[in-house]
Every structure is written in structure tokens, then in C-alpha cells.
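Researcher: I'm preparing a figure for a lab meeting and need a structural model of a single chain. I don't have an experimental structure, so a prediction will have to do for now. The sequence is pasted below. Please return the structure as C-alpha cells so I can convert it later.
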Amino acid sequence: MQQSKPNNPPRRLPAVLATLQAEIVACRRCARLVAHREGVAREKRRAFADWEYWGRPLPGYGDPTARLLVIGLAPAAHGGNRTGRIFTGDRSGDWLYATLHRFGFANQPTSTHREDGLRLTDTWVTAAARCAPPDNKPTPEEFANCRPFLVRELQHLPRVRVVVALGRVAFDAFWAARQVLGHPLPRPRPQFAHAQTYPLSDVTVIGSYHPSQRNTQTGMLTQAMFDRVFATARELLQP
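Model: Understood. Here is the structure written out cell by cell.
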């Protein structure tokens, strides 16, 4: 597919993040996920027959000086696995980036492909798993294989002060990564709930239902509910 070049080039990543992104894209740790993501990229969906699918793991994306970290579940087979950018080219991404734009975290409300000019401000978007999984369900072992990538993002995004976890899986992935970094779980153990805040000494975590098509079409997650999460994030990040 022909893609227009952006008007505003992305901010240069620090070497540690650039190296991490290259390692993620080259990862082949999980044979099941490699087979699935590459199979989808070969077979494609009829609506995207003219696309050259990405078909590789997805690194995080955004502002390396971010104070807001957004964690999702995994790339969609014909979304991020097609476009090469996290939360891009599917309905979940439509919800996420439009909302980020409304609250001043993105320069535009849409994210359609890697060269569409989207730039995030004060925000980094990532996921618990980096490959599109069959039935959107990575195994515990696959999540464990991906965990070091999230751990290193937490290490190399030192200004993060607010974490939005999109869904229970992302919520659990965040706490698991913090434990690797030597932070014990709070007691009592945090229980996921939508729009619930979890203040820690260094960051505040906010739980949110995932903006999946299933959640948004059934009304489990409404736009007002999603806005509430990012309004809270914006308020917490005020000087």
C-alpha cells in the first residue's frame, strides 16, 4: 500500500529504547505466535489484500519522555500485525487514539498506518504481548516470554507517573513487571476495576476496561467511561 510521509518527523529515541525496539521486532521466542502472525500476514484479509502486512512483533510507540504509559493486551491480527504500529488499524485503536487526542496526548484523532503523521505527546503506548495471538489469547508462557520487554520499558521511561492498564490482563502484566524490578505487590493485592486508581510511591495506576469491539458494542465500555479514565490521567499529570 502506498503511504504518505509524515509532515512532522518522530522524536529520536534514546539508544536504549531504539535497541529495545529492534530486539522486539526481531523476536522469535514463541513458535506458536511466530507461525500465527506470519500466517496471517501471508493469507491477509480480503479488505486488506493490497497491504504488505507487518507480520512481526510490535514495539511500543510514543514519546520517550512520557509521563503517561498506556498498556494494552496484544496486537490485533489485522490491526497492528498489519500496520506495524501498536493499536493501529482496528476499532480498539480508533477508540484509544481519538480519546488521547481529546485529552491532548496525541496530535490527531486517527491512527491508520506507520506513516500517517501521528505523534504522541507525554505518552507511550505498549502491550503485555507483542505478537498477534490466535483467538487473541496468549498463553501464560507467551506472556512470560514478553515480560522482559515491558520490564525494560519501565526501566527506560523514567518520567512515567501515570499508568493506564487497558483490561485485567494488562493490569496483571504491569504488576508482574514491577515485581521483576524489585517492587513488592501492595497489600492487599490490587484488584482490577474500571476507573479505579491505585496510588503508589512513584506512579499512579488506573484500571480501564479494554476498548475492544466486544466491550464497546455491548456498552460495557462507553465513551464517557473511557473519557473518565483519561480525564483522571490528565488531572494527575497537572503540575
